[in-house]
Amino acid sequence: MRARKNEKNLRENGVEQEQRQEPEGRPASTSTKRRSKPTDVSIVDTALFFLPVHTRVPLKFGAETLTSVTCARACVTVEDRRGRRAVGWGETPLSVQWVWPSALPYGERHDALRRFCLAMARRWSEFREFGHPLEIGHRFQQEVLDEELDRYRAAAPSGQAIPLLAGLLCCAPFDMALYDAYGNLHDRSAWETLGREYLNHDLSHFVKPDPDSDVDFRDRYPADYLVRPPARTLFAWHLVGGLDPIVEDDLTGDEPDDGHPVLLTDWIRCDGLKCLKVKLRGNDAVWDYDRLARVGRVGARLGANNLTADFNCTVTDPAYVVDILDRLQRDEPRIHNSLLYIEQPFPYDLEENLIDVQEVSSRKLLLMDESAHNWELVRLGRTLGWTGVALKTCKTLTGAILSLCWAQAHGMKLMVQDLTNPMLAQIPHLELAAHCETLMGVETNAMQYYPDASREEAKVHPGLYRRVNGCVDLSSIKGAGFGYRIGEIDRVLPEAEWRSAAVAQNGGP
């Protein structure tokens, strides 16, 4: 949280001074002394829906196991200064165990996230800022999200405060929906609106380079860091969860018989997998080494020769990871060579755990994930020895774009990681990966854990929800915004949990 406050101080002390000089006491969102373009929009309506999803097999996150999830789907209506309107959609699973690891009962954390989503729906509907989605989303996080989190934390009992990562998750569906609506209004892909033609400010307005670098963000825009044209096929990283059976001897008899693979060997053969992400415990070196070696041997035998290891943020001493890597290099050199990178072994809160990680990153690429809430924390991570960033749309697309630009400008490597994204959540997730230079493809695993949840979306976008020859196919994504083709998807939504006054009055969406 301190990094977020520091970023706000940077804005107030110069990074955004060119934007406004407001009268004392005036709300930031009412300022009129700002750069503007005729393409600018403001949010006029919001709606929020909760969609329950159940897993076919359990997914283990660190010490916890996921068997169901609620997806938050947001609808946002924007309007430009000429009165033209467009609607956009955004969605993310509320993965309680990932954003809020805690001894608190799951139900309490889940209910708190639902309530915070409702608070976000209300605050976004009240935030009548004009601008580009990157500008609106950035200001919302700095001026509203932080304030709302502080308010919730002040009212929460000791030890029950909502973490920043959870707050970003609840903010993310509205942030994504804003980009979709903006693209729809201008009849452009959302990714085609990230240059000087649409933005009022260059990147120097949002981010600041490391003082020890020669990076200069002046006259640079997110479009300068995106891949053009975007990839239309991507290698798909399969998740080997801590409870997932690898071979027949691992079966317990409780596995589903639903026509989908269960064994890792069957998944590799069925989907032609080439890339495997292995979930480890981070507190049991014997188990972790054995698991990684077993998966590596099976993968090598069947042609899945690319590995990564995810230690679930439970490691506190770099020597733990170093010992496993060194043993692999000595005893299993082929598996060691197959490891493309290591993902977030160390605790979530980077500022509370200033661990020098260079012993690890000197051996393998080391990517931040849960700690990379924003570009400032990415900058801090780089000083500690982290060499890459795992981007996620569930931490807001605004944050992902700014982290992407900062990291790439400073020579850090990129991946796009999944939050087991089903339904609409899958589309911006894959599009983000298609538009940036990832190490190799994208992680995508919703088809493993709840394939039927995306049945209606898969009728329109079959290549997004299944993996063929180890890849996902994005060729069905067409049109403005995120190319959802929402009118062709025959999904019946539940009753909205929130509708702003204008939405309720007009009977939509």
Task: Describe, in plain words, how this protein is organized in 3D.
The chain is an alpha/beta fold and 509 residues long. It contains 16 helices and 13 strands. The strands form two sheets. Strands 4, 5, 6, 7, 8, 9, 10, 11 and 12 form a nine-stranded mixed sheet that branches. Strands 3-2-1-13 form a four-stranded antiparallel sheet. 50% of the residues are buried.
Average of pLDDT: 92
**What is the succession of H and E elements?**
HEEEHHHHEHEHEHHEHEHEHEHEHHEEH
Q: Write the CATH fold name of the largest domain.
A: TIM Barrel
| Main CATH class of the largest domain | Alpha Beta
The tally of beta strands, per DSSP, is 13
Number of helices: 16
Q: Features of this protein?
A:
2 domains, Enolase-like, domain 1, 509 residues, 36% helix, disordered C terminus, 16 helices
Helices and strands, with pairings:
Elements: H1 2-15, E1 41-61, E2 64-80, E3 85-93, H2 96-99, H3 106-126, H4 133-155, H5 164-186, E4 233-240, H6 264-271, E5 275-279, H7 285-302, E6 306-310, H8 318-331, H9 333-338, E7 339-343, H10 358-361, E8 365-368, H11 375-384, E9 388-391, H12 397-409, E10 413-416, H13 426-434, E11 442-443, H14 446-449, H15 455-460, E12 471-473, E13 498-499, H16 501-506
Parallel strand pairs: 4-5, 4-11, 5-6, 6-7, 7-8, 8-9, 9-10
Antiparallel strand pairs: 1-2, 1-13, 2-3, 4-12
